[in-house]
Amino acid sequence: MTDGPAERASRRGRPGYDLDSLLTVAVRVFNERGYDGTSMEDLASRLGITKSAIYHHVAGKEELLRLSVDRALDQLFAVVNEPEAQRGPAIDRLEYVVRRSIAVLVDELPFVTLLLRVRGNTAAERRALARRREFDRLVSDLVERAESEGSIRRDVDPALTSRLLFGMLNSIIEWYRPRRGLTAVDLADAFVKIAFDGLRSRPDAPLSPAPDPGQTGSPAGA
Amino acid sequence: MTDGPAERASRRGRPGYDLDSLLTVAVRVFNERGYDGTSMEDLASRLGITKSAIYHHVAGKEELLRLSVDRALDQLFAVVNEPEAQRGPAIDRLEYVVRRSIAVLVDELPFVTLLLRVRGNTAAERRALARRREFDRLVSDLVERAESEGSIRRDVDPALTSRLLFGMLNSIIEWYRPRRGLTAVDLADAFVKIAFDGLRSRPDAPLSPAPDPGQTGSPAGA
DNA sequence: CCTACCGATCGGTAGG
DNA sequence: CCTACCGATCGGTAGG
């Protein structure tokens, strides 16, 4: 009896954008030209509709930004609230959060990209930055706990370790593109190796139980 | 370019900005508001002069960008051309380039920040991106060489290792601020530990790097 | 002839 | 979702 949101749009009224498909296009343009550098006219011409039509869906440019970065933030917060991130040794929880964050980053690449480029010039941007800082603090607490449990090196400050770890993770948005032969799981495997055990080869150290010898996880470069 | 900004200009004509001191202010504003989001009027009011006066020094906004990113790029290329980056084991050369790049990043933080935020919307931006890619290729070659020499782990693709390594390095601009108790050398020391040996504590491995006796790495000068 | 600007205004385009 | 607009501001240039 009650039609779903997509149902309603397709049955009644003109065919056109719903909020989700509009956001998908808007985020792509924001990432190409920068949020500040994108005019509502840019968005309208890319969407194939007029500027005013956009205001049918959202109150303005800032709401487009808010809805977009919240989509990324909601999924990242969901990760740290999953049971695997809440119990067990902190080092395992940290690895879990890292792997799941990479999955979110890959699945929602344009939205996470936009989130990471927010600078804080407007209210919506400052709101996004505040939520980011809250996420960073949760991760930082996890790193600190892992250090006090003795599973993370004690000769580097936990806050610094946390920043470098997620700095490396976030940098993935700069070059990762799907459909280039590197899956999210292969990427996460390689990332965890580099981050947790370093890029140096250590012939004297015992290898982890049967690291798959078949694939090297080559990312088809460029 | 070691003379004080106002020294040279104080002899003839009005006291005012020379190109260097103008760039210092311009880059700061670009980083605050974004390059696209910065108007010439923004720059003028921050400088305390009129818009027209800026055109006395440069041909336009794009030239301000070009001069700024070239300052960062020139120093980064200088690093890979230093003798310590040209001879010896590739792993040592890589560590040297990492330490010196961190020193450049810290010394020229606003200029490197601007460089890393360039997106390619204008000709000057695309030119900067091309030079960045050239630098990245030099580093990537070094990582590949270190892997073929057996000093870097073989179970991760060198191009991927290189991207993660410099992704982590570049992320320093997001949070590092001078005068907060973390010197560039301390930062580089911690960075090299995390990047080369990983964040995991390894009670079974010797504390000091065992495989290569002698030096632990080049102290990067700064 | 130089350096270092000023006050005013150009044709177009921004978000709403 | 469109047409017809607004107040303001954009990057850049004129003569002095």
Task: Describe this protein with a few key phrases.
homodimer, 222 residues, Arc Repressor Mutant, subunit A, Tetracycline Repressor, domain 2, 10 helices, disordered C terminus, DNA-binding
Short summary of the structure?
Chains A, B: Pfam families: TetR_C_24, TetR_N. 2 copies of one chain form a homodimer. With 222 residues, the first copy, chain A, is mostly helical.
Question: What would you call the shape of chain A?
Answer: elongated
Strand residues, percent of chain A? under 5%
N-C termini distance of chain A:
52 Å
- Describe the oligomeric state of these chains in a short phrase: homodimer
Radius of gyration of chain A: 21 Å
Q: What count of domains describes the coordinates of chain A? A: 2
**Main sheet: strands, sense, barrel of chain A:** none
Give the tally of β-strands of chain A. Answer: 0
Query: Given the structure, what is the number of helices of chain A?
Result: 10
H/E element order of chain A: HHHHHHHHHH
Reported by name, the CATH topology of the largest domain in chain A is: Tetracycline Repressor, domain 2
> Spans of chain A with pLDDT under 50 lasting ≥5 residues?
1-13, 206-222
Notes on the protein architecture:
Chains A, B: InterPro entries: Homeodomain-like_sf (IPR009057), HTH-type_TetR-like_transc_reg (IPR050109), HTH_TetR (IPR001647), KstR2_TetR_C (IPR041490), Tet_transcr_reg_TetR-rel_C_sf (IPR036271). Chains A, B: This is Transcriptional regulator, TetR family. 2 copies of one chain form a homodimer. Chain A has 10 helices and no strands. Chain A has helices at 5-11, 19-33, 40-47, 51-57, 61-81, 90-107, 109-117, 123-148, 158-170, 184-197. Chain A has 2 domains: 16-61, Arc Repressor Mutant, subunit A (Orthogonal Bundle), CATH 1.10.10.60; 64-197, Orthogonal Bundle (Tetracycline Repressor, domain 2), CATH 1.10.357. Chain A is mainly alpha-helical. Residues 1-13 and 206-222 of chain A have low confidence and may be disordered. In chain A, helix 2 (19-33) crosses helix 7 and helix 5 (61-81) runs parallel beside helix 8. Chain A starts with a helix and ends in a 25-residue tail after the last helix. Chains A and B meet through helix 9 and helix 10 of A and helix 8 and helix 9 of B. Chain B binds a DNA duplex (16 and 16 nucleotides) through residues 9, 12-17, 39-41, 49-53, 55-57, 60-61.
